[in-house]
Amino acid sequence: MSSVGDHCSVDSIASWIETRNREVSVEVERIPFRAMDKWEVMPDNSLRHSSGMFFSIEGIRVRTDYPTPTEWEQPIINQPEIGYLGILAKEFDGVLHFLMQAKIEPGNVNNVQLSPTLQATKSNYTRVHGGKNAAYLEYFRNAKSEQIILDQLQSEQGARFLRKRNRNMIVKVDADIPVYEDFRWMTLGQIKELMQRDNCVNMDTRTVIAGIDFAEQSVSEVDMAEMSNFGRGMIESALTQKGVKSLREVLSWLTSLKSRYDLIVEKVPLNQIEEWECKDDEIVRYDKKYFRVLGVRVHIDNREVVSWCQPLVQPMQQGICAFIVKKIGGIYHYLVQAKLECGNRDVFELAPTVQCLTGSIFNGAPRPPYTNYVLNAGKEQIIYDALQSEEGGRFYHEQNRNMIVEADEDFPLELPPTYQWMTLGQINEFMRYSNYINIQARSLIAAIKYK
Amino acid sequence: MSSVGDHCSVDSIASWIETRNREVSVEVERIPFRAMDKWEVMPDNSLRHSSGMFFSIEGIRVRTDYPTPTEWEQPIINQPEIGYLGILAKEFDGVLHFLMQAKIEPGNVNNVQLSPTLQATKSNYTRVHGGKNAAYLEYFRNAKSEQIILDQLQSEQGARFLRKRNRNMIVKVDADIPVYEDFRWMTLGQIKELMQRDNCVNMDTRTVIAGIDFAEQSVSEVDMAEMSNFGRGMIESALTQKGVKSLREVLSWLTSLKSRYDLIVEKVPLNQIEEWECKDDEIVRYDKKYFRVLGVRVHIDNREVVSWCQPLVQPMQQGICAFIVKKIGGIYHYLVQAKLECGNRDVFELAPTVQCLTGSIFNGAPRPPYTNYVLNAGKEQIIYDALQSEEGGRFYHEQNRNMIVEADEDFPLELPPTYQWMTLGQINEFMRYSNYINIQARSLIAAIKYK
């Protein structure tokens, strides 16, 4: 079976994606918001799909007392419905394979990236847009309990989405299933290998893969001897009970932060939000910071021609997401940050050590803790370093540098109050429940390579 | 030390509460909303404290597609800040005791009930109302990690409060601490014994006590032989790995429900909500169903005289909260219901088997599943049966019948789609994370007696 990953190298998968990239033409043309088919510009300049479903761009006012009383207004993507991010899995010769799709998304820097088997909003699969039913949808809707390897509600970017979540699923099938064009079976090892490259595996895949408790799933099958030192260290960190803090202590720390600080988010008319300007074809800050909202017409010339309009969010700066890891008492710990973002459902989520914009934004002002440490890390400290894209269905050319950096011996164990050392096992435990580990942290956890 | 529970019987604690009840005079006088000192009636008839903090009564529109598309409007209590419900614990002669307060609340049917050491909203302890600082507050604010036995964010009634939560804490002290008037040390066993009586232990105590993982905390110290059959069964149910469903399966079931159904809550002007009427001194449905909002002046004549005004919510029907339990494969399972309530932070929470109004409300219409089974249970099936009050600081004379009923042999194992069998261990596991087990379920779990 030529589409099974075991029989094809990582390079051949990568070149398959590159070929698809060359074959397809994706045009993203900026147009005024009022020219977007099937979209409406409301009296307050907010944007909504004419079905009333799908997503909308609205204005919010955010008030919080963290770290000190502050208030701001911004546009946000409101998509209250929960979509599927689903991966089908099947064993070939005793090895689990995942059915991945080479998927075009208008916001991708490189058009095609590796995506889950199914990526469908409720509006998609109830066919609000019209169009065909999503391929493989029924395998997820009709999955039996014993087929389900993973089934989690997980958050998206809290600075851009208002409390949005997806249902991340991995469903195992035994029967032969059709492999449509643009789909291929591949192993977890191959997917993780592809994550070492820039912009090859999309965010939707990374957030699902992150939920796999690798130590639980595979440690008995995997020959530890075949692993890298770091890989063995990760298995130990996933299985240990010797974290510097117990799970109870970490929960208490998070409870204390959520109790101490308020996050109040109210909708306000988009055309009245402070610091922002609603133009005919963009919604942008006067100082051009953070991001802007564009109206686009997408034109894809593939095997068939498709065209549609939608808003996209474009970042105005590059960003970095980085975990610092350190062996404490022989066990790897992740330096986790409790981060308040306006779209969070529960005030704080656990984020990477560093998650911030880079470039000129800090112009003189001090950068967030550990940012300089990560950016100045020596080569021998860098475990992982790749550019990764945010979801190309909402974000235009947004890529962030993803890094895992090993702290040097002198790195202080004492942390600021909103930072915590956690084992991989503790992160995995929080991952099972919703709204604890944010999407940027999950993207990094997904990238952990064991071999 | 005469205030230590070990030295005083349950009866003496009960008579201490009764004495306090006789000594105190609590007058709750209905007054027009506009006559409430320190409260403002807004242009849309919503009610807010003049500080802008504390709580408010507002109007909401609720839209959901569960179980079928439906929409309604209602008043709701909005209290976005997180308060403390804290109990101090200390060992006397090797036995853990809890410092409990005989506390007056205006809505209590019997004025005084047993409450946590500390019961304080953020407005209380930042002294928005003026007044003294809450007793024992500093023990909770300054608790060190190793003193914290329990620290959880837990929800309140989802049908009455908009996403309200409290921080439930148990903090252990070693030093001698002052025991103020109206406070006494007592054991967990004594508190649970008092919960077998009607309206003796308040809801705030019950929700904190529910979080104690009894099997984890005490099974090594406790002589299993001293326990009742039911008590031993509960320990087994807390420790077993042999649930009819795994935790992964239960989480997947809940994920599936949260994904399938939407809950959209918007604020609307209170004086425009459908089916409700804003009068000068009450907000009430035309058909008098469910509940009404009253304005009251509270006058307490105790050692000192105190008086204040506030809104209170009065139920228009009585209610019942009941768990059915059943031994399956030799292990007790709880029949848990996933329940959607408008104030839930996360669409569904896990509720008792039966949680509904009783009385004339179903007038002919079929009652929710299992309601008749519980109400017609034979005496030998009833493990627990007591009237318990909702929080007397917000609710006026609201008491619900709390029951635990053992299913008979013929009880069907097959359940409707929103019901699930869960072990006590699984319930305890969910309890550690926020917004999974609702307050009515927690009230019943707190009442489990082991001896």
Describe it for me?
Two copies of one chain form a homodimer. In chain A, a hairpin with a 6-residue loop joins strand 3 (47-49) and strand 4. Chain A has eleven helices and 24 strands. The first copy, chain A, has helices spanning 10-23, 122-125, 137-141, 188-195, 203-210, 214-218, 229-239, 247-260, 371-375, 424-431, 439-446, and strands spanning 25-30, 39-41, 47-49, 56-64, 70-78, 83-92, 95-104, 112-115, 118-120, 148-155, 165-172, 183-187, 263-268, 276-278, 282-285, 291-301, 305-315, 319-328, 331-340, 348-351, 354-357, 382-389, 399-406, 419-422. By secondary structure, chain A is α+β, with helices and mostly antiparallel strands. The radius of gyration of chain A is 22 Å and the shape is globular. The A-B interface holds A 80-82, 84, 145, 148, 151-153, 167, 245, 248-249, 251-253, 255-256, 258-259, 262, 264, 345-346, 432-434, 436 and B 80-82, 84, 145, 148, 151-153, 167, 245, 248-249, 251-253, 255-256, 258-259, 262, 264, 345-346, 432-436.
Which SSEs are present, and which pair or pack?
The structure is a homodimer of 451-residue chains.
Chain A: H1 10-23, E1 25-30, E2 39-41, E3 47-49, E4 56-64, E5 70-78, E6 83-92, E7 95-104, E8 112-115, E9 118-120, H2 122-125, H3 137-141, E10 148-155, E11 165-172, E12 183-187, H4 188-195, H5 203-210, H6 214-218, H7 229-239, H8 247-260, E13 263-268, E14 276-278, E15 282-285, E16 291-301, E17 305-315, E18 319-328, E19 331-340, E20 348-351, E21 354-357, H9 371-375, E22 382-389, E23 399-406, E24 419-422, H10 424-431, H11 439-446
Parallel strand pairs in A: 6-11, 18-23
Antiparallel strand pairs in A: 1-16, 2-3, 3-4, 4-5, 4-13, 6-7, 6-9, 7-8, 7-12, 10-11, 14-15, 15-16, 16-17, 18-19, 18-21, 19-20, 19-24, 22-23
Helix pairs in contact in A: 5-11, 7-10
